[in-house]
Specification:
By secondary structure, the chain is α/β, with parallel strands linked by helices. It has five helices and six strands; from the N terminus they run ααβαββαβαββ.
Length: 194
């Protein structure tokens, strides 16, 4: 399944090499991703479109693998994971490939995915002059595509500029997870009256 053109790979590789701030948003979402990792009792995670791998660096105790077709050292075809994160990536996808990319993410997601999608123009511009956000569509447009591939568990709209969703794989049954471990009992206290 083709998810990106060769020309676009080269444009993005150029941006990654020229701009230290390109491909660095993953770390902003680290706490939310860690929460979902633990809530879904995940054993593996994949950062899809990892860029400079800031999410992995922010969560060194989680087993996060990185994939980005535009970063040579992490461009090999990824394996499925319990949790897939894809933050500030989907709006950068070439419109002709968005359905293939969403299908790919759905195939890789064994339990849950955390997706952050901007709906506004980007500040950055591609070397060919186009806005870096090739897809600038409202949340409703995106949700229609996501509903075909995932079960929506959470939707948060941030000032109509971007939104994030937590979605489950359609093949995942959350009721098959063992119950989370019980919290430890409260410490025993003793009271003395003199």
């Amino acid at each position: 399944m083709k998810t990106i053109s060769e020309n676009y790979i080269e444009l993005n590789r150029l941006l990654h090499s020229e701009r230290a701030d390109y491909g660095t948003s993953g770390s902003m979402w680290a706490s939310k991703i860690a929460e979902r990792f633990h809530a879904y009792q995940c054993q593996s995670a994949l950062d899809y479109g990892a860029g400079k791998q800031t999410l992995k660096k922010s969560l060194p105790n989680l087993p996060i693998r990185c994939y980005d077709p535009c970063v040579e050292e992490i461009s090999a075809s990824p394996q499925p994971a319990h949790l897939v994160s894809c933050t500030d990536v989907l709006e950068h996808i070439e419109p002709d490939y968005i359905d293939s990319v969403l299908d790919h993410i759905a195939q890789l997601t064994e339990r849950v995915a955390f997706l952050v999608i901007a709906t506004r123009p980007a500040v950055k511009v591609l070397p060919d002059g186009r806005n870096a956000h090739l897809i600038q569509e409202p949340a409703s447009w995106w949700l229609d595509k996501l509903f075909k591939r995932f079960r929506l568990m959470e939707f948060v709209n941030n000032d109509d500029q971007e939104f994030f969703v937590t979605v489950e794989s359609l093949t995942f049954n959350r009721h098959s997870l063992p119950p989370p471990p019980a919290p430890p009992p409260p410490p025993k206290t003793s009271i003395r009256f003199y």
